[in-house]
Amino acid sequence: MAISTTVINVVARRLRDTANIAYPRAVLVRFVDHAQRVINAYTKSAINTVTVTSPGLLHTFSPVYRIINVLAQECASIENIRLDGKTLHRVDDFLDLSHQDPNWFGTRGNRWVSWSTIGKDFFILYPIVQPLPTGAVLQFDVVPTRPSTILDNGSNDIVLADDLIPILQDLVEALGLIKGRRWSEASDPIARFKSQLDSLGRTYQIQDVTGKV
Amino acid sequence: MPQADVLQLVTDLSDGLNDSTATTNYYGDVIFLMGLDPGGTVVNITTVDPVIFVPQTTLPASSITTLAVIYDRKHLSKTGRARANAWDTQWFTTLGPPFAWLDEDQDRHTITEIPIPVNPPTVGLPRDPSTSDPGFNGLTIIYTETRTDAHGDEELAMALEIMAREFSRDSDHTDHTAAQTCRTLSGTLFTMVNVSLVDDIPGPAKALQEESRGAE
Predict the structure, then answer these.
(1) Tens of pLDDT along B62-111?
(2) I need a surface site. Which of B23, B36, B44, B69 has the fewest CB within 10 A?
């Protein structure tokens, strides 16, 4: 894992501003922060697993859950949901649930079969599980893309894998050149950034714009 | 993430050249365009109570595109006027539990249920079905919306799109090369975070614009 200081130093060198006069470090930190969020949303390079055990988070009146209420964090996407170690079926477009079951919003069952997301704020666990016996705890794992913590001008780890650091540096360099209104120079890191993105498909499962892998 | 994050990013990227009022307005414009995408990411869910014996239901004021409508627990099909007429030429007055909805001939924040609901809903207030019981005979609407807290991964793309608009407008810092650079990069970043920014110019106007571009 690279640390933010290293990335900022490299970009500052490329911008010919190692003293951070025209490009203050606080600004570069913000650029790195936002750039890594985009790259991670695209590559799913860093994901984590959140185990949900609190029965208070689950309800029986609808199959819809707000992601931030369950995971206590925002995420760019959910990649997987497991119940008792078994991966639930992912429905790419929640509207497809209505083809399978027009009453999906109210169907009840003994265990979850599939899941889907609605935008980036909600997810569906289908069907609604019957009320559990008193004292029983239902535990499931949610695998979201890992949200990056807000970086500071220190030694925070970049959440991206090391092979994505050159892409991150190119994007931050482009943002720096845009800030400096060096438009013709910005086209070069933008071109490098795009060509590297094209080659990422070999390593990462890249989602297209429809959300299907 | 709050709107202030994006505005700060625009200020950083434009080196303080941006007009703060214009930037705030552009933020609203970009969120609206994101909401026009039927695969949108700025989505909300609300259960409202239909008025019994009245075919229309008013959607939340923040709604942009209606993605799905659920009556009681049943997912309603979206239909059109012609199909509704084929089913029943009296559909506008037929009573019963709804099985379809349409938004033709309505203003932006209104939908019509077919047939007209007659069973009284049980709760009373608009509610979020992810946190409270939607009750019975309610109408649950899933829709894209305008808001002031975009997702963290979308903020950079939004900031660049706002920059493109800032440099396109007539001002002392108008710069079409800058606008084009920002728009190109924002388009790539929007694609990376699964957002399609729908062009806000309707068909004929867009065709005219493209024609005039060709003439240049």
Answers:
(1) 999 999 999 999 999 999 989 999 988 998 899 999 999 998 888 888 99
(2) B36
Prediction pTM value: 0.88
Task: Assess contact for B164 and B98: CB atoms under 8 A.
Answer: no
Closest-CA residue of chain A to B197: A209
Average pLDDT over residues B185-214: 69
Our measurement of the distance from residue A88's CA atom to the centroid of its chain's CA atoms, rounded to an integer in Å, reads 19
Q: What is the 3-state secondary structure (H, E, C) of chain A?
A: CCEHHHHHHHHHHHCCCCCCCCCCHHHHHHHHHHHHHHHHHHHCCCECCEEECCHHHCCCCCCEEEHHHHHCCCCCCEEEEEECCEECEECCCCCHHHHHCCCCCCCEECCCCEEEEECCCEEEEECEECCCCCCCCCCEEEEEECCCCCCCCCCCECCCCHHHHHHHHHHHHHHHHHHCCCHHHHHHHHHHHHHHHHHHCCCCCCCCCCCCC
ipTM entry: 0.89
A182 in contact with B, Cβ within 8 Å = no
pLDDT given at position A198: 81
Instruction: Name the maximum alpha-carbon separation found in chain B.
Output: 61
pLDDT of A118 > 90? The answer is yes
Residues whose CB is less than 8 angstroms from the CB of residue B210 and which lie 6 or more positions away in sequence, other chains included: none
pLDDT in tens, B168-181: 999 998 999 899 99
For A7-52, the pLDDT digits (tens) are 899 999 999 999 999 999 989 988 998 999 999 999 888 888 888 8
Residue numbers of A between 91 and 130 with CB closer than 8 Å to B? 93-95, 97-98, 102-107, 118-122
Q: How many CB pairs under 8 A join A and B?
A: 137
In this structure, the strands spanning A50-52 and A64-66 are unpaired
CB contact under 8 A, B128 and A66: yes
Q: Which of A45, A105, A149 has the most B C-beta neighbours within 10 Å, making it the best mutation to test the interface with B? A: A105
Contact A38 B129 (CB under 8 A): no
